[in-house]
Specification:
By secondary structure, this protein is mostly helical. Helix content is 78%, strand content 0%. The relative contact order is 0.19.
């Protein structure tokens, strides 16, 4: 009876299981980082408008650059774009962590919250390249008959972690 259900068909491909597992870590980390940065900017500014500015700084570059990111994903090796993008996101997080640990990012330094806006904008630029590559690499991992299933599982996982991680 259950062998006719094809909901998790793509997980039969070992490379897709590894990809999906790495994406779970990514979705979890992104959701938590967004929540923590929002809380931090609220504590620094006591302004909901600053949270909105940070979200806007993340969303606009992401939307605009994703068109270019999709074109690059079709022309260059996706693996290198993924590695470079993840490295860039790690550097942004390390920069924010360094600013926090040195005391630069604090309520005693009034304009320091703008660093979080800049970090969000940089993250938006990187996400503009990363999001199209995340979907474009799936057909290289699974066979043609499982592509729709793999993409559906990826989108489901991403949305579940957006809700569950924070």
């Amino acid at each position: 009876m259950f062998n006719k259900i094809k909901t998790f068909e793509s997980f039969k491909v070992p490379a897709y299981r590894i990809y999906y597992g790495s994406m779970v870590g990514n979705w979890f980390a992104q959701s938590m980082a967004m929540m923590v940065r929002s809380l931090l900017i609220l504590r620094l500014t006591d302004s909901a408008m600053a949270i909105g500015l940070m979200s806007l700084a993340l969303a606009i570059p992401s939307l605009l650059i994703s068109l270019l990111g999709g074109a690059l994903a079709d022309r260059f090796p996706k693996k290198f774009i993924l590695i470079g993008s993840r490295g860039g996101l790690a550097l942004i997080s390390l920069g924010v962590a360094f600013a926090l640990s040195t005391g630069f990012l604090s309520s005693e330094n009034p304009g320091s919250w703008m660093l979080l806006i800049a970090a969000a904008a940089l993250e938006g630029v990187i996400n503009g390249f990363l999001m199209p590559v995340n979907m474009a690499i799936i057909p290289e991992i699974v066979d043609h008959g499982r592509v729709m299933n793999a993409i559906s599982l990826s989108m489901m996982g991403q949305n579940v972690f957006r809700l569950a991680s924070p």
